[in-house]
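Field log, afternoon session.

UNIT: design team B
ACTIVITY: writing a sequence onto a fixed backbone
BACKBONE:
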């Protein structure tokens, strides 16, 4: 009788502890994934929200446009920075995609080594694709988890 009660007590103990062990393991996995991120923005990083709407200047210090948007690929890399050039009072402009690496930051401003005239001659960039629906929502057309796909290559044309 004692042996049967002890066996039942041990089985109950294991059954009661199993969800706690599973929850701790699942929590540990999530904690490990999140803990790889720093708790503060780093000196070599820039916030997209601060970049969007910022004026862009050429090397002659002339205002050539404003950052309209930042395009991310499926892997979370910046595929293009879209600059609105030629706008007067927010009208009549044209969106042009440039590579993030072409933009220099200095003295709290963004600079491109290209003239406004040359950007105005570049191919217009469409922020929404009417054929596929890309750009019309917060997720890629094919959905899924960002940072896990094959991603697209950097398709912004070099200027």
């Amino acid at each position: 009788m004692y042996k049967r009660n002890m066996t039942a007590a041990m089985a109950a103990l294991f059954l009661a502890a199993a969800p706690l062990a599973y929850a701790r393991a699942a929590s540990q996995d999530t904690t490990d994934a999140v803990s790889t991120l720093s708790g503060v923005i780093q000196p070599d990083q820039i916030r997209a929200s601060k970049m969007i709407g910022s004026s862009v200047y050429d090397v002659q210090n002339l205002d050539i446009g404003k950052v309209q948007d930042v395009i991310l690929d499926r892997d979370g890399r910046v595929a293009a920075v879209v600059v609105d050039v030629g706008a007067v009072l927010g009208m009549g402009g044209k969106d042009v995609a440039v590579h993030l690496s072409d933009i220099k930051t200095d003295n709290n401003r963004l600079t491109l080594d290209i003239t406004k005239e040359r950007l105005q001659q570049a191919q217009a960039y469409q922020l929404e694709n009417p054929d596929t629906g890309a750009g019309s929502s917060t997720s890629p057309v094919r959905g899924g988890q960002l940072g896990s796909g094959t991603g697209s290559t950097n398709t912004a044309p070099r200027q």
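LOG NOTE: The chain has three helices and six strands.
NEXT ACTIVITY: expression trials, pending approval
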